[in-house]
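ok so for the tutorial part 2 we go from a plain amino acid sequence to predicted structure tokens. step 1 is just haveing the sequence, like this:
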Amino acid sequence: MHVRFGEEKQGNSSTTPCFLLYSRDVEVTTKLYTELLKSSQELRVAKASSVSNVQIIDPALTSSEAVKPRKAQILLIALLAGLFIAILSVFIRRALELSVYDPNQIEARLGIPVFVTLPNSKAQRRLKRLKKKNSDDVSLLAAIQPNDPAVEGLRSLRSTLNHVLTQVPNRLLLVTGPKSGVGTSFVAANLGVVLASGGDRVCIIDADLRNGRLNQHFGKKSDPGLTEILLGNLTLNDALQKTSLDHLHLLPAGGSAENPAELLMKKRFAKVLDTMQTHYDRVILDSPPLLEVADAVILGQHAGAALLVVKAGEHNLSELEHSVKRLWQGGVELRGIVVNGTNNDQRDKHHPRG
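step 2 — the prediction. this is what the tokens look like for a chain of 354 residues:
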């Protein structure tokens, strides 16, 4: 019995240190867990007790209309921008093409007076539309709309010519232009009407033997006319045509010719002009384009004075200078310039002389 007791005592002494070690670990772990749990609960309480500094002043309002896009504002801005770009493009285009609009600029550059500026005529455009429907009708603006601003300009031109043409050697007046489409035939035909209305005996000759259309303004046929006279197939009296206006006759261009310049250089043409000067106070020669063919210079050598018809915005200064130089080199007496197709603003800047 004594021995067994001693053995049990030795066995208990070996297990005691392990038990103490595990007890201490449990105690430390329990204490650590308790502290963490306590800290966690304190943080939750602190978070729940915190007060926000954000306050609601007014509740949000809902708009009945869309805030964006603002269609009216966008359309207005687009309209203004479009107008600005359009105006800017016009100025840029004029600057690039260097076309002449101002009669004062023409005078300053060429040294030749601008006798008159003829504005665009709405009545003339209507007459052109009616002319296309019925080619037999007269389309003379000066006869149908005598109070039109363009006709008033031609009356001012008549007053100027009455003074200028007293110093020329004959009664022949050449009306020409740098190129086609500037209104040479319009000026020649309506100027003839204005001169005849003033009591002068006037004859208008369509000297464009290549593409003469002066007869269309009077509702007449183109042939027979000047071509047949120069070929010796017709007399002057048989070719002349009366118009609906007193003291005004027309000599149309006639049929097409193969060599118009050579026909105009014949002595027969000079004799025709001399004969006509004995019967008329003023003979107007409507010529073909100056820079396209040589006919205009040939005609101008017979005329005592010449008018250069230009159209606003259709020419540059170099083109006009070349036209004037060509007339002077051919010995043509260029007396003045007629600016056709101007607007009202341009006309106010340069009043017709007379």
